[in-house]
């Protein structure tokens, strides 16, 4: 084996042979379709689609691409009786050559029995023939929106029209690689609550080269809710003995995934009040995890996508958006050259860090809806990272909140602890205050008791006893936190070892009162000598008034 020319190891996913073409495309005239719209000499090839149209057109309706999977994927077995899928592709003014390659690659590189249909949703493109003509291709259906809806409502329309029990969502400028579909359907067949994505390879927007993406990535985000590809945590990477196994991912990129249709419907499809583009991938990702499902990337399934640096289309409600500098190319996975020099050695996949500076559109409205419905108290970190989001109206979310209650979904805290513990909560600046009631201050005495005493400033003998850190929901002094001893009125309040999960320690401000979150009772100094208790909240009462005064 050793010493063989590496090129012999490179598998190529071939386009269909000429005799298969007829059955594949039926009455559809591929040449006429592509010739019907072409770049005029002298036109900027990037202008209309934000990729090099000339190169895409030159490739035509199909081409061979490199099989970028790990070699072990080729020997994985799948059930013979996998269910079929409806492929749903939404598009707005897609180039004919990229759209056609998307469709043809699905038809040629998937087992025919697994493709029930391809549903195209033409999201009010300027030329209705782009879609219409394609409906001559066997299995292809074309639905045209009567007005621009955006990709979210378009996908829901496609899903509602689908006849297969499994849905496959797509962008309109993709090419699938060898055997991409079987791993996806197999995973969903085994457990219908799984939502699965392929590794998304990179199709160069300049020369349309098909490039292998790193196989060690998963979907993540930062607090400004920007999607990014990130390395799998090192412990998980070490534990991966088999490179063909699924990778759990906190979020999906959004464009290419397979989901059981009844599970999609059960979980509330999409938030159809989201417009045009963006944010829906967070919404669906949080919802799937928090409401009982899971998200995976399947390394034996690879699909290429043309990653662009700008949106080639307009956003009709431009004021819903804000432009700012971020790393749009974070969205493009790192590409690493697979060097198949040996079958035993996995190919090197370390990628250099990239620096990216492009302008991107940030859909505040959609993202705000996702944050408001799903992120609970953690949405504050989104707003701190994106202060401009706070001002923008986001419409009513009551339907989505009802859905969340009805599905009995877990809190975002659960998601943070179990799905994405690597996402660090921003350091909160610990601000120390005294809690003043008239001329007296709340202080600790001995190990766990509390009382009121004359306020002492800095430099006093026991400044610590009156110094509180207010980090919602905790009121702390070093490792000790203010806690109730029971959930009933009149119960004593004492100090206890801090734990943000402990319901007895959760407080929130209510005017100048301090309310215990779970019991709804308020901190009360019934007698100045102590002990401190909780009683029914009466905001006007002096014994419940605690004015924080910051000390340095
Ligand atoms: O108004 C519109 N109507 C549409 O039908 C706007 C767009 N679209 C179509 C469009 O033609 C395309 O097919 O929607 C699809 C996605 O739009 P793109 O390709 O312009 O954007 P994108 O590649 O940045 O899309 C990524 O983010 C989106 C956020 O809403 C969606 O989740 C896309 O599905 C997602 N694409 C992918 O995840 C592919 C992998 C890339 C990554 C990361
Ligand atoms: Mn895309």
UniProtKB/TrEMBL annotation:
GO cellular-component term (any): Golgi membrane
Taking the record's annotation, the residue ranges forming a coiled coil are none
> Which cofactor is essential here?
Mn(2+)
What is this enzyme's EC? 2.4.1.-
Answer whether the UniProt record assigns the keyword Glycosyltransferase to this protein: yes
| Pathway field | Protein modification; protein glycosylation
State the UniProt keywords alphabetically. Disulfide bond, Glycosyltransferase, Golgi apparatus, Lectin, Manganese, Membrane, Metal-binding, Signal-anchor, Transferase, Transmembrane, Transmembrane helix
Q: Where in the cell is it found?
A: Golgi apparatus membrane
| Enzyme class, UniProt record, top EC level | transferase
Which molecular function GO terms apply here?
carbohydrate binding; metal ion binding; polypeptide N-acetylgalactosaminyltransferase activity
Question: Gene3D superfamilies given for it?
Answer: 2.80.10.50, ppGaNTase-T1 linker domain-like, Spore Coat Polysaccharide Biosynthesis Protein SpsA, Chain A
Q: Which CDD domains match?
A: pp-GalNAc-T (cd02510)
The protein's annotated catalytic reaction(s) are: L-threonyl-[protein] + UDP-N-acetyl-alpha-D-galactosamine = a 3-O-[N-acetyl-alpha-D-galactosaminyl]-L-threonyl-[protein] + UDP + H(+); L-seryl-[protein] + UDP-N-acetyl-alpha-D-galactosamine = a 3-O-[N-acetyl-alpha-D-galactosaminyl]-L-seryl-[protein] + UDP + H(+)
GO BP, one annotated term:
protein O-linked glycosylation
Q: Where is the Ricin B lectin domain?
A: 428-549
State the family named in the UniProt similarity comment for this chain: Belongs to the glycosyltransferase 2 family. GalNAc-T subfamily.
Know the name of this protein?
A: Polypeptide N-acetylgalactosaminyltransferase
Organism this protein belongs to: Gasterosteus aculeatus aculeatus
